[in-house]
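User: Could you check the structure of this?
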Amino acid sequence: MKKTAYPKQAAKILNGPKASSLQPLLSYANYLQHQSKCLRDSLSEPIASHIALANMRHGVATIVVDSSTWLGKVRYLAPIIQQTLIKQGLMINKVVFKADPTYHLGRKFEHPPAVMPAAAGELLHDFANSVSNPKLQAALHRLAKHGKQADD
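Assistant: Sure, the predicted structure tokens are below.
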């Protein structure tokens, strides 16, 4: 009879006998996080909240930017960013920028809920009544129900 394999807890992996092989990786991640924070602290606020130091290898620093819009703006600051990293004691010859909207920069993205005005709901309801396709008519009626009422 086979034993069922259960996922291991992170604490057991990090504190277990194989933890010594993970320690350099964790140390490097903490080092990059510290250097990234120092870089953000030295830059002005609108830009600092959109960048992170992702990696350093062979004298090349990789900076991740959270959108292509900010990527265009940050590229103009490449010499300033490189000098800032050198002042932090890093041996940097080149700075490379990459846009990655999925890279976690420590912010929460909260979108306000979508709201449909009551007039739009009524318009959709009237339009649904004029449609001959029953599936489309049902879908438009369901959508029209999301219209805000005057007392909401």
